[in-house]
Amino acid sequence: MENNDLPCEEPRHQVDWRESFQGWGLSWTGLLNNQKGEWWLLAQLALICAHSLPTWPSELFEDWSWPVWLLFTGWTVFAVGLGLALQGFLALGPSLSPLPDPKPNAALITTGVYGRCRHPLYRAVVICSFGVVVAKGSLLHLALFLLLVAVLNGKAHREEKRLCSVHPDYLIYRRNTPAILPGIPGLDWRKG
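Below the sequence we write its predicted structure tokens.
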């Protein structure tokens, strides 16, 4: 059999991950007028960065400290969240955007990690934040966690309005797939 007689294989599409960081549409104008949901992103980033603050109240009793097993458990939960974030990032590929408005011509991803929840990157952020709360045992970080959940809820709702207008199949996907964490009020809403 000659080389000309071999069946042709279609070339596989190689994903260039640099495409994930292009076409986000960030602009100074958007930061001023929240054109594409930039304020949701800024609030999210500020709350995530605030997780690096020291615990408060710091140890109230001199002879008592946060149990080591909770410290270990919290950082383990945090690591699980990072792993979930990586899965979500890889699944989105070139459709990735930090803004709640989807990129123009972005594909609707509903399989893999997106088959288990509609917002796996937000789920990962929530899990990481919860891990920090458990690891630090801090009322400040508990408040940051609750604020972050509220911001991600608002950001996800804005994102879904736009996704419904761009992808008509999103309505069915939304009805059948948990939002962020299944069965948890504020983190799971399903509409027809």
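Residues 44 and 151 are 6 Å apart (CA to CA).
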